[in-house]
Specification:
This protein has nine helices and seven strands, in the order αααβαβαββαβαααββ. The protein is of the alpha/beta class. Strands 3-2-1-4-5-7-6 form a seven-stranded mixed sheet, sandwiched between helices. The protein binds S-adenosylmethionine. S-adenosylmethionine binds near residues 25, 64, 117, 118 and 136.
Amino acid sequence: MKYKYLNIDLKKGYRDIAKLYELNNHLMTFYLDIYWRKIMVKDIFNNIINRINIGSIIYFMDICVGTGDLLFEFINFLNSKSFNFSFKFLALDFSVDMLKIAKSKLLLKDVIFILADVAKIPIKDKKMDISTISLGIRNLRTNDELFEIRFKEIYRIIKDGGVFWGLETSRPPNKIIRFFSDLFTAYVATNIAKVVSKNIEVYGYLADSIRNFYEPYEFRDFLLNKIKFKEVSYKLLTFGVVAIHKAIK
Ligand SMILES: C[S@@+](CC[C@H](N)C(=O)[O-])C[C@H]1O[C@@H](n2cnc3c(N)ncnc32)[C@H](O)[C@@H]1O
């Protein structure tokens, strides 16, 4: 398969698609993106319940926050639960336009927004209990060197014992399902997005980047070997079209 779009100007791309980003995401995934985030949110919450002492403040940073969908889901989920600890939320993205939408959505929630590239996070070492990325991991691999720099930054800001959670599109392990999933991504999903957002380059890039990204076990090994997280594990959802990785510092 050829990759035509991997070298586009991503910051500009995100600016161009920001307004229709959520609608596109929902249409391209048949609204499964909402379900996938819900699963990760539940996993994170259950993990917190099991790990963190009641009464503590939990520092939670969503990286590549985009329009804020994951934080929105997490904060809504908290409203349906009773617990005795509190959260400090931070949200990071390098796109002003994405952050503007996230801010308007999370207006009444107590969230600190940070405009920065993941390569240089303006936070001191070991501050976060939890760092998350949903559907933005593969976008950090503009090249292998930067990918490593960005993940070392994520590792740096997490406390010892803190957890990184990553939700990312993947390619199903079953060869037949993978074949159809690749076709779907390359032709159907991308064309839906092109019609809705009229942006061939960005959605061409997003499709290329799915096929060009690590297999889930390769990303686990990258986290383990290069970044030195411990207890790295992952689970596949929806036949493996997405994976949720969990890694402890
Ligand atoms: C595909 S969107 C994911 C948004 C959201 N997390 C979600 O679940 O839908 C990827 C986001 O990552 C941001 N992003 C990409 N590369 C980045 C980088 N190097 N530093 C900071 N943000 C980045 C983009 O601006 C965009 O908002």
